[in-house]
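S1.2 Input.
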Amino acid sequence: MNLQLFSSGTILARKWKFFAQAGDETPKNFIQISGVTKFTISRSKEDMDTTDFDNDGYDSHIVAGRAFSLKVEGHMRNAENGSRCPGQVRVEQIAEKFGVASIQNFHIADPAGNYYQMKGSVKLADIGGGNKDKTSWGFEVTGEGKMQKVSEQYKQSCVYTWSDVDKASDDEIPDILDVSPSSH
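S1.3 Output.
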């Protein structure tokens, strides 16, 4: 995942969008996950030690494996009709699956309109809150395989259902805040 979105300016995290595979038999249908307040895409690697006596006491290694995960934090949301937000409900359904069925597709859209696909299993975050808090909600996807940029051709073959919870106010938010010296 190589994000080179803009030459200047600050990229607002709130402009990223997250989608879950809408159903077990519909790998090209995605539903937006709403209520997101924070996200983290993490990468890790596992090294294999190749140190031997010829290294004169210095460590040596090669990369034996790479992994990634997506952690999403937010709050529980209801759709305009009062039912639970469909994207959150779908993530909760995926989190209950076992075996091969537990590996589902997710798409991540960056503010520049690039889409990335990852496959993985879901672990739900704790739900809770205090007297004056929104009810927390979130999840973590443990990636399987490589996260890849979605080609324009593949993206056009997918169906994306946008949440009615976020769509109305989203158009009012600018993609970037220009913080270049010339704008002040």
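S1.4 Remarks. The longest helix spans residues 86-95.
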